[in-house]
Write a structure and sequence with these properties.
With about 400 residues, the chain is of the alpha/beta class. It is built from eleven helices and 13 strands. The protein is globular and about 55 Å long.
Length: about 400
Amino acid sequence: MAGQKKQYVAIGMMSGTSMDGIDIALIRTNGKSRLERGPSALVPYKAGFRKKLLKALEEAKTIRQRDERPGKLAKLEDEIAERHVTALQDFLASRNLRLSDVDVLGMHGQTVLHRPDLGFTVQLGDADTVASQTGIPVVHDLRANDMEHGGQGAPLAPVYHRALARNLPEEYAGKWPAAFVNIGGIANISWITEEGGMIAFDTGPGNALIDQWVEREGGVPYDQDGTISGEGKVAKKLANKLLKHPYFEAEAPKSLDRGDFKLPEPGWASLEDGARTLAHVTAAAIAKACEHLPERPKLWVICGGGRKNASIMDDLHKLIAEGDDPDKPSTVITAEDAGFDGDMVEAEAWAYLAVRSLRELKITWPHTTGVGKAITGGKLAIPVREDSSASATRK
């Protein structure tokens, strides 16, 4: 039976809502407290392929059954799988590692639709193709079982954040409760207690609206390190309007699709002021997450591309400190301050989740996704051999 090994070499592959490329990260873990972080890399998407992915978001809006692939989505799914295979082969070869050195691959795929209100989510990327071409078992579709049991299917990283929280440097250890915040296309929070309790949910927009704004208004694909945001000023009237979105009042757990927040109309602000305002909304939404938590976090660890945006980070420091007890202020740090790689936490999480899936350990809980009870999840794509079938499902 799978799951009897004490330690696994696992690789996570994540193509997130920012659609900037494939993050690859290798870890060694037992799926519990034992964790050793290894090498990682980003394989960026070229502009032309990224445009294909953005068009896929429009085609995916017509999907009503999660296995539907209308229009060009079927072909795109094959392309995504092939890019994952090539990226993995190059990653291992550049580090003198063999495919046979890897026990399991956790593959996220590219999300093109996430509709918890309809009970399904769609990630493109044929895991059977990846398993067959690499010879590595692939755990994929990790959100589906959660949604089939009443959960939001997101966020899934909290259990990995909990493992990281137990491996914090001494100077930050003991600051409970702790919060890990990932700012990708969408931002999410994992609230973790010293005893291991977790609450998690999407806080609101992350980088997606900023990047959509600068692409539409300035013709650049994203706001590199917040350079454009840093030149602007917050349009407070618009920021307040965006922060009145009903999502912020909804009870947690809750999750978002990339398209749930609409880009403001053209012409209401300069390129720089628009980017700065949307950066402020991202930070303010994260700070508002405290309204749905039993206790304000004492430590905030910021991960994902948004941590590189100085405007977001400046606002986080200000907004979080404003609500603090002056005698017990919160500490806001980046993942790097804690010795982690903020770009790779999500990819590492998918490797960790793959091992937990193999071992039939729980990956979601009622307070992280809203699922009825704590459960495992994921489907296992097995490299095709004469005496084996292509895939199996773990529930």
